[in-house]
Design a protein that fits this description.
Two copies of one chain form a homodimer. The first copy, chain A, is an alpha+beta fold. Chain A is built from eleven helices and 26 strands. In chain A, strands 6, 7, 8, 13, 14, 16, 17 and 22 form an eight-stranded mixed beta sheet that branches. A five-stranded antiparallel beta sheet of chain A has the order 4-3-2-1-5. The first copy, chain A, has a five-stranded mixed beta sheet with strand order 9-26-25-20-21. In chain A, strand 2 (46-51) and strand 3 (54-57) form a beta hairpin. The first copy, chain A, starts with 32 loop residues before the first strand and ends in a 5-residue tail after the last strand.
Chain lengths: 439, 439
Amino acid sequence: MPDLNETHDPALKSWIASANDRACDFPIQNLPFGVFRRKGQNEPFRVGVAIGDQILDLSAAQSAGAFSGPAARAAAACAAPSLNAFMMMGPAAWSALRLSLSHVLRQSSTLADRLHGCLVPQSHAEHALPAHIGDYTDFYASIHHATSVGKLMRPDNPLLPNYKWVPIGYHGRGSSIRVSGLQFHRPLGQLLAPGAQAPTLAPSKRIDYELELGVFIGTGNELGERIRIADAEAHVFGLCLLNDWSARDIQTWEYQPLGPFLAKSFATTISPWIVTLEALAPYRIAWRRADGDPPPLPYLDWPMIRHAGAIDIEFEVLIETARMRESGQAPQRLSRSNFRHAYWSVFQMVTHHTVNGCNLEPGDLFGTGTQSGPAAEEAGSLLELTVAGKQPLTLANGETRSFLEDGDSVIMRGWCANDDHPRIGLGDVVGRVLPAIRE
Amino acid sequence: MPDLNETHDPALKSWIASANDRACDFPIQNLPFGVFRRKGQNEPFRVGVAIGDQILDLSAAQSAGAFSGPAARAAAACAAPSLNAFMMMGPAAWSALRLSLSHVLRQSSTLADRLHGCLVPQSHAEHALPAHIGDYTDFYASIHHATSVGKLMRPDNPLLPNYKWVPIGYHGRGSSIRVSGLQFHRPLGQLLAPGAQAPTLAPSKRIDYELELGVFIGTGNELGERIRIADAEAHVFGLCLLNDWSARDIQTWEYQPLGPFLAKSFATTISPWIVTLEALAPYRIAWRRADGDPPPLPYLDWPMIRHAGAIDIEFEVLIETARMRESGQAPQRLSRSNFRHAYWSVFQMVTHHTVNGCNLEPGDLFGTGTQSGPAAEEAGSLLELTVAGKQPLTLANGETRSFLEDGDSVIMRGWCANDDHPRIGLGDVVGRVLPAIRE
C-alpha cells in the first residue's frame, strides 16, 4: 500500500471551520490544487488550494511567509496561471508543499491570523483549467462499459479480443477541454437516418454524457523512453472528474475506421480541482481480475498494482432539466458507480502509453473512459441506461429522457471515504446543453 | 482561382544567386517560413525564411531596417522561437510580410548589402518545429489509400460507406512530432502472432512510413463557432511534408474499436519549412469527383472548392538503407504521387473539423492522410507497395524490403511546377529507424 503520513491523519482539523464538516469535499486531508480568480475582478488567474468552502491563494500565502525550504520552492512554481511548472517538479516537491499546507492550515497553526487574508470564498471564485493540457488521451478502462456498448453493436460478440490485453485508448481533442460550468450549443454533424442513402448535416439528436476520471500527468518522459510500471505512480500528479460529452449519432456514422472524432471534440469538461495521488493514498485498494481473465502482460504487472492499483472512488451522476430548474426541484440522480470496477489501473495506462517510446508531458490529461459498474443501473452514460434510447428513463417529475435535451445540465460528483479515513471529494463537474445554432 | 500578385511573377530573380537555380526548392517565389539556429551555437531558435541555399534571419533583417508598416509589425511577431504569434495575425499580415520579403530579396533591391549579414547558410543551420502544435489531427483524404488499405482487410468491401461523405479524420499525438532529421528506436508494442492465443510485448516487425502533407492552421475559431467553407482558406497558414510513421502489427492488434494509438504515437516527422498558401496559389487546380461519386454536402461545397480546391503538388519517397549509405549509393525512389488525387480538399478538412463547434488554434497541425495516387506504384506506404508484406520489393542493390529495417532512412520530397510558374519545393523530410531498445 502507498505510505500514509501525518497529512492523512483522520484526526486533523483545520482553523477554517467549514473544512471540519464531515460532508465537506475539501477537509484538511484533501488539499487539492486548482487555478482561480475572484469573479468579476479583472485579475490574473492563479493557483489555489481548496480548504472547506474557501480557497487558499498560494502566492498570497507564500508572501505571508507560510512556506520555507522545498515547500517555498514548490509554492514559487505555483506563481503562474497554471500548475505545469509545479507538476514538473515531481513527487518530492508535491509532497513537501502538501505537508506545509497541512501544517499551516491545521487548528494548531500559529499562522491562522496571517493567512486569513489569503482566503477567497469558493462562491466568489471562477476557475480556469488547472493546467495547460498538451495532449489529451482517452482510455476505455471499464470492461462493463466496453461490454454494454459492444453489445449494442455486436450482440453476439460484445467484447473485442484485444480488450483483456490492451489498455485501449485513443487521442482526444485538447483544445475543447473546459472547466466545469461550460454551457455549449448542441453540435451539428453528419447524420445518417435509418434507411437513408445519404447523410444530412443537422443538430445531433443523441447528446450524451460520459462519466470519467481525468488523470493529470505530473512529470513526463523523453521521446523514446518508457515509464516502467514500477515508476508509473511517480508520474501521476492527481485526479479530477471528467465528462466526455458525446454525440452518439455523429459517432455511429463517422467512427469507422479511425475512431471517434467530431462526436467528442465539441466539448469535454473537467472539475476545477486536482486531488493529488498522495491525498488518495488511504483509498487505494487491491486491483483484481475476474476469474478466467488473463493476467496482465509482464510490462503491466507489478506487486503494487495487485496490492493497491485500484482506487475506491464513488461516483454519482445527476440531471437537472430546465423544468426542474424553473420549478426549483433538486437535480435527480441518474446513476452511481465506483472506480474500483475499472479493468485497468491508472498506472497501467501510464506504462502502456509510453511502451512504444511516446513521450508524456507535464499537464497531459488522460480520461479513464466511462466508469460503468457491473450492474445496469451503474452505467456511466445514457447510451447504456436507456439501451441506446430504446428504453427511455422516466424522471420523478414525469419528464422522459432517451438522450439529453436542450437546457439539461449534467452534474457529476466523486468522493472517497472508508472506515478509517474521512470523506474527501473531487468536487463537481457541471455542464449544460444549449440549443443548436442552426444558421 | 486565388489571386496572383507580383510575388508570384515567374520572372523575378534574387540577389542571392542560389535562389535563381531552376532546380532549387526555394526561389524568390517561394519564401517559406521556419524556425532555426546555427548548428553548434548555443543560441536561441528564431524565425527565418528560406531563400536559395540560405536562410534570412527575420529579426536580424528587421533590425537592419528591411521592413516598415504592416510588414514590420508582422516581422516583430516573428521575434520568437515559433511562428504562432505571426500565424494568429491572419492573411493580411502574412501577405504584407511576403510582399516585403519579395521586395528586399529581389535582384533590384537596394538592401542587398545590408541584408547580406542576415543570411545563414542552410547547411549551417538546425531546425526546431516551426510552431508550437497544440492539437494534431490526421485525416484520411486519399481514396486510393483508403481503398487499397481497406482491400487488405475487407477484400469484398474495401471502402466504408461513410468515406465518400465524411472527411474522415482522427486525433493524433502532438508531443511526438519532430522536425526532419529524427532518428528513433523501433517501438515495442503488443503483437499477436498468427494463430496465437495471447499477445507478447516485442519490437514491431512492420515499421512503415506514410507520405502525407502537413497543414498548419493560422488563425483559429472560438469554441462553438464554425469556419464556413467560404472562409476556410483564410485560416490556413501553409503546408509542409509529413511522415506519419506507423507500426502496422501494433496497429492491427490495438485499433479496434477506437482507432490507431501506439501504432502512430512513437514518432511523426515534418519538413522544416512551411510553404504558405499564398506561395501555392499558382499551383491550385480544380477539385473534382469521379463520375458517380456524390457531390459534397452543401456545408463542404463552394465554387472556389470546385475551381481551385486542389493543389498540384508532386511527391516522391526514397529509401536509403544502411548498406546504401555505407557503400555510397544514392537513395532509391520507392514511389511518386501527387496531391491532386486527394478526395478531400484542405479547405473541406478545416470546415468539417469545426462544423461541430470544435475550436482550432494557431499552430494546430493537420495531416492529410497518406497520399497514394490511383496507380499501384503511386502508393504512399510500404503496406500498399508490398501488399502488406506479401510482395516484398527488391531494391537495385539486391536488398529486399517488406517493411523498414533498422538503419533505413526514408526521404520524402514535394514540389510544385507548371508551364507558367517555376518549381517551388517543400524541402525534404528525412527520418531513420534505429534498432529497438530491448531491455
